[in-house]
From TrEMBL:
Keywords: Signal. It comes from Candidatus Actinomarina minuta. The keyword Signal applies. Residues 1-21 form the signal peptide. This is MedDCM-OCT-S30-C42-cds3. NCBIfam families: choice_anch_I. It holds the Pfam family choice_anch_I. Residues 60-519 form the Choice-of-anchor I domain. The keyword rRNA-binding does not apply.
């Protein structure tokens, strides 16, 4: 079992908050969510897509990842509902009447991500056999938005995210390398760096692996003892530094971030993100304890409990303040859960150390911690067969780190508190990973820098002013009826926008809808 460095982690936790003396109880709908220091205001303009007006879930995966082409005023969105998968092209020239122009077939293995730089669109396309190497497909975008395939390139196994470097000279894919469901094949995770500096036709691919770390002592999390670290890492998302010299890669299941040198095209380091202490961040950790009072209004309780949780970010982004690079993370959480191997276990099924949990008989009740999902591979620090520390999945927050891996901010339990007050919190997810912060966008608007974080399970986009990375300020919680499970966001600058206003686009996986919001200065 891996031992965590609690002295370092305690410093991280205490720098972002203090403990609550007692549980908090939130009445649904009893709070005005808008910040007292709100600088912008976001209004819903239009929702569109195949899922509009349809039963929820009927068009799941119709839209997940999208990007915008300013020249043609077109939005391009992945569509995993179609078979084979497509990239859908929408005309946004009239934002009150978005129109689907065409669906472009990109391959039988699906399409996981798209990204646009100038007049190029890059699509991440897994192989039809998911454990084989996938593809990066690069398209030219015509003046009218039509796509023409320029190049198809082999990259690593299961490319799940694609992005361009800021200078446009490279395309990068995060290749998860997930095992098959039987866990008999476990490919290596990797990052493919595609050099297009001499043109797409002359593109070259370098795939950076993690083998150099296999034999080195490391604090990076591994779940399966028989696997190498190179097999265990599953690159999820890539953020590129402003100078296009480094890439920061979230390794979600490993609770880590890797650093890739884009000059040498090699992985040069990894950070263990440590653990979040729920003694200092009261959370709702049970889906069974919600009380109904005499007025039939739900009251949701949060607990300050002896529980640690891995941050495990999905989306990450990089931005600069005063010449310094900061990394923003959406701390969703994820486990390894396959037919051939699963690390998931609920607290009720753990044998807890009596000294660490003197009230263990109470702790394992469903109304307390019993329902919380944890990892069977974590928490037995002394190797005696019982669990000394309950360790869960996901930070249920967003965090900001320096380029050296030092956490300077964590939103603690704000997402839970705000959505509980708003009535958008889903108590059925309390035992899992809560609201599951997943997607993330960053944009400078009127001199301030904002983060837009999607909460997949609460169907909310949280907005923060992150101009001061050590002191972000909550702005607004954004949601709209019928838009369920936001996956990611696209911010369209005012100078590129169809209506001359800054727009926020939210892609909603479960409802199969795309929401257009307008960002106004308050």
């Amino acid at each position: 079992m891996k031992k965590y460095l609690f002295s370092f982690l305690s410093l991280t936790v205490l720098s972002v908050g203090v403990a609550y003396a007692a549980p908090n109880v939130f009445m649904v709908g009893d709070s005005n969510l808008n910040s007292q220091n709100q600088n912008i205001e976001i209004e819903h303009i239009k929702s569109f897509g195949l899922g509009v007006g349809q039963p929820l879930g009927d068009f799941e995966a119709v839209t997940e990842i999208a990007d915008y082409h300013p020249g043609s005023k077109m939005l391009y969105s992945t569509n995993g509902y179609n078979s084979p998968a497509t990239v859908d092209r929408y005309d946004l020239s009239d934002i009150n009447n978005p129109t689907l122009i065409e669906s472009v077939n990109v391959g039988t293995g699906g399409v996981t991500s798209v990204a646009i730089y100038e007049d190029l669109l890059a699509a991440a396309v897994p192989s039809a056999t998911a454990t084989n190497n996938g593809y990066l497909k690069v398209y030219n975008i015509a003046n009218d938005g039509a796509l023409t395939l320029a190049k198809s390139l082999r990259v690593g196994v299961l490319p799940d995210m694609v992005t361009f470097s800021h200078d446009g000279n490279m395309i990068l894919t995060a290749n998860e390398g997930q095992p098959n469901d039987a866990y008999t094949i476990d490919p290596e995770g990797s990052v493919s760096i595609v050099d297009i500096s001499k043109g797409v036709e002359s593109a070259t691919v370098t795939t950076a692996n993690f083998r150099a770390f296999n034999s080195n002592p490391s604090s990076i999390r591994k779940s399966v003892p028989s696997a190498t670290l190179a097999q265990e890492v599953e690159p999820e998302y890539i953020a590129v530094s402003a100078d296009s010299k480094k890439a920061y890669v979230s390794l979600q299941e490993n609770n880590a971030i890797a650093v890739v040198d884009l000059t040498t095209k090699k992985v040069i380091g990894m950070w263990d993100l440590g653990l979040k202490n729920y003694r200092y961040n009261c959370m709702d950790l049970s889906d069974k304890e919600t009380n109904i009072d005499s007025s039939k209004s739900k009251r949701i309780k949060t607990k300050c409990a002896n529980v640690m949780s891995m941050y495990q970010p999905d989306a990450i982004q990089a931005y600069e303040v005063d010449g310094h690079t900061y990394i923003v993370t959406a701390n969703e959480g994820d486990s390894r859960d396959y037919d051939g191997y699963s690390e998931e276990v609920r607290v009720a099924d753990l044998t807890l150390d009596k000294a660490a949990y003197p009230k263990s008989l109470t702790a394992v009740l469903d109304t307390q911690l019993g329902r919380l999902k944890t990892s069977k591979e974590e928490g037995d620090f002394d190797g005696d067969g019982d669990v000394d520390q309950i360790i869960g999945y996901g930070g249920r927050s967003f965090s900001i780190y320096t380029a050296g891996g030092i956490q300077v901010f964590d939103s603690r339990n704000e997402f839970s508190r705000i959505t509980m007050a708003d009535g958008t919190y889903q108590d059925g997810r309390s035992d899992d990973k809560g609201c599951e912060p997943e997607g993330l966008g960053i944009e400078e608007i009127s001199g301030s820098t904002y983060a837009f974080i999607t909460l997949e399970r609460c169907s909310v986009i949280m907005v923060y002013d992150i101009s001061d990375p050590r002191n972000p300020v909550f702005q607004q919680a954004v949601s709209s009826d019928g838009d369920v499970s936001p996956e990611t966001v696209v911010i369209i600058k005012a100078e590129d926008s169809p209506n001359g206003k800054t727009l926020l686009i939210g892609t909603n996986e479960y409802s199969g809808t795309i929401a257009i919001y307008q960002i106004n200065n308050k």
